[in-house]
Amino acid sequence: MEKWTRKEYGTWDEAFRGLTPRIRQSSVRIASYTRELFVQACADSFAKGTHDGSARIRGKYADLAYKCGMYHQLGKALVPPEYQIFQSDFTDEEKSVYWKYMTDGRTLVSILQERGAAAKRKRGMPDGEEAPTDNITWLMLREACEQHMERWDGTGLPEGRRGDEISPVAQIVGLAHELDRLASETKSEKPFDEALEKLKGEVGAAWSPALIDVLTHAKEACRGVYKKYIHYTMTLPETIPLVEKREDRPMGLKYRPMVSDKNGSVSYYEAIPWYGGIADNPDETESTEDVSELLKKSELISDISVYFMYEAADAVLRLENCKLDVSGIILNVPANFYSESEQLFRINQVFEDEGISKDKLLFTIPESVLLSADRETAENVIEYLNAGCKLVLDGYHPDKISTEQLRELGFSMIRMSPELNLKSETAVQIKSLRESGFTLIGGAADSQNSLAWQLACGVVAVGGPVVGALACENEMIRDGLVREQTI
To answer: What is the pTM of this model?
Structure first.
């Protein structure tokens, strides 16, 4: 690996190219936010009561404000790429190297300014020394570099400046920088709105009340910047669901987390249908087993199953849009689901409509269904597997279906029957299945012993009462966000 050496930059473009792609991309976004905020600050007469504000917060400097946002991180070009993005595990020495980018940035900018001015006449200014200046353009760029991490209450860096001691343009660039960071990193369906609320909550501490007023008035203009560059950030737009989840609907899904280790890391969610509309008990629900005969007689299995697939697919999209680290959702479908010959077309339509991977939405198939399947149902199951659908064989007994048969059919994911849990021979069978290339899903964890035993056997995800209570979709998303933000 080529050893990094500190570079000397002769032009602004050279220095900007010395930043990592991620920093360059964020700088472009921050520059756009800065311009919108600066234009609004001019309209609001922001900082007009200060000497610097009255001289600098003027419409003629809007393009300059954009450059201040673009180049405010330029000092990071003077350190290796691995130190340009702050990491929580930095040592104290590495933190010092990182935070030095603000003062380094001011010095670098001043050098580039002097070199540009000296292109036609030499001034003999030694490298690394800043020339004093009253040039507002030069000062705004230097101050944006050095002071954008200062905070209104004096808790910022590098000098702990307080209130109006902070340059007005640096205040604006600092707010733009933080808006971009929050909108890019917040795990939520509405990261921009949550970023705004977070910043407003820091009024009087990190930001002056007048600056927050500027942000409020420029909200829609800044939202336009966010939408323009959304594909270059870590966030996605708000999910538009294909299923309307009204409070009075007669059926829906509840979700239970499935953990992958003793720390409770969630790798899947299991989606379990519920049915309401019970006479005299509107809040009571029934399971699929309770209404299976009714569904079969009324020939509603196909339509209801597709409804559940769309609802589960909506949930998958929300998990992805919130950047939650979850492998997918396992949907428990009605037992007679696989007897419907036209289902495969409708399944593929769900994935096409929602735009999600078939690896993200899995379906259970009870072992009893497979064992009692007629020829048409068996052919349907094989068609689903051949089409890339992920089917989890549920309630598996190794003595009833051999691994050779499973492999021939195309199964790769298995959930052992709960009655086999905590048995030494089952642990041996699970090990053999894993070594044969099968993925084991766990369930019915009704005690810590059952949960720990399944995890010790190498099951990739375990669900059950001890893992967590059934929750609605909104609760699942909320709990997932809380869990990830506390890691």
So the answer is: 0.67
